[in-house]
Amino acid sequence: xxxxxxAMNILWEIALTVLPWLLALLVLLIAAWSAALVRGSxxxxxxxxxxxxxxxxxxxxxxxxxxxWSRSSLGELAYWVDWANLLAIAAGAAxxxxxxxxxxxxxxxxxxxxxxxx
Amino acid sequence: MRRQxxxxxxxxxxxxxxxxxxxxxxxxxxxxxxxxxxxxxxARTRTQAHVVIAGSGLGGLAVAHRLQALLDGVRITIVDxxxxxxxxxxxxxVATGVWPVEKVRERNVALQPAGVEWVKEMVTGFxxxxxxxxxxxxxxxGYDFLVVATGVHLDYAQIEGMDVQAIGRxxxxxxxxxxxxxxxxxxxxxxxxxxxxxALMTLPxxxxxxxxxxxxxxxxxxxxxxxxxxxxxxxxxxxSALGNVFGVPAVNDNVLARWNDLGIExxxxxxxxxxxxxRRRATFTSPxxxxxxxxxxxIHVVPxxxxxxxxxxxxxxxxxxxxxxxxWLEVDKQTLQHRRFxxxxxxxxxxxxPRGKTAATVKKSAPVVAGNLAAVIALQAPAxxxxxxxxxxxxxxxxxxxxxxxxxxxxxxPSLPMIDPLQDSWFAWLMKYHMxxxxxxxxxxxxx
Lengths: 118, 448
Fold this sequence. Notes:
heterodimer
């Protein structure tokens, strides 16, 4: 339990150091979801495949770059704990990327296949 | 001491209706922010006590934040001249070229809890019989309760010829004095790595803050030399004044085995007693008093450490036993309450306790000190006990580390039992590189 509390606090303190970026992300998320939901013509199902692809790309990018970004390398990941944590971080990044991408792609798909358009 | 009143424990929370649940759903993010933004306030003890905290390092500030959360009406005075707060666990990263120096520099005033009085002077004397501390200007400050958080004194004066101002020049390195010394140490390390040569890494026989730092510096020097391509014409030697290189046997054996594989030589029971900086020669003394002079191209000097004079010369210091020579604070190792002055507590490096002079020690002992002090203020016995927990992210090279955690008895006590503390790990490195400073900031704020 203490470790969970500690992890939450670490994330909070990291968040404080990148607050402007987090706020920008939040604005982007709200705008994207609002636009998609308010218009009501979003192609959610059609946008899903692209969303998953973007999530996979984001996860792959994190896996390939995070060790280097932390002044290490993929070659240093010789312990299962390293891979478990890297995959968890990558999954988190994928989740964020998909949360942004899905409403955008859904809106785009909705416009593309709207009746009366070629 | 003034008489204190205890506030009644808050009542039972009523059952939640649907509207409450909906309200909670809306308020949850705000509540979570508030929860993280301030220490959790349980039933607070009402008091008019005056608590003086000598020192505003991690320990002093963490206890100050926690006391404010635990005590309603407490008056807290922090006595420390330092305007800059340094994240000392980052010194080894600065000194090995991993971090820029800015990452270890913070403004002290920004880290102090609101409402405390800050006396910007050093404490130069403790008079516990009179419940008074004396500052550098001669000002006398009375207290009801005292928290000693002064940290250690780096006793470079024990090394004849040593000049802290010369760190960074003539192959002289030492990571301990501060950010400037850490930066200068990196300059010296780079110069050595480019050319190679003979390196001496020293270790004194006294208790040390961050006892892993000399080992990390050795691992990283070897890594830098290897990357510079000068390993073939370099000789790295670790010279310890003790019979080992680390106080925890399992870690000691593991590090020695690694160094054997890396070609780092180890010599024990040789104390650095003198240095000729201009000639690049170090003199070591054996327990029998035999002196030997050795040339070097690079030397990492780890100073002997002891309590600051103000503590050492006071009645607060151990009067006998293994901690008396260093003048360390005489506290009970479990409650961290002074053994002879019950209104005095100790936190951090100053404590005369076995092992544990790290930020991780403060992380686990600050709740004990604050909780026990609050109990004493409420006329109760101190019930919380500290087990001596400490940890050391032992960097083994750039990009990899071991996350070692141990207690007073030297037992390895990993927080997550499935993780092997002696296993090289990128995740342990990531923690050292990116997560431990955020954890440190949470400790300062009294949250973890």
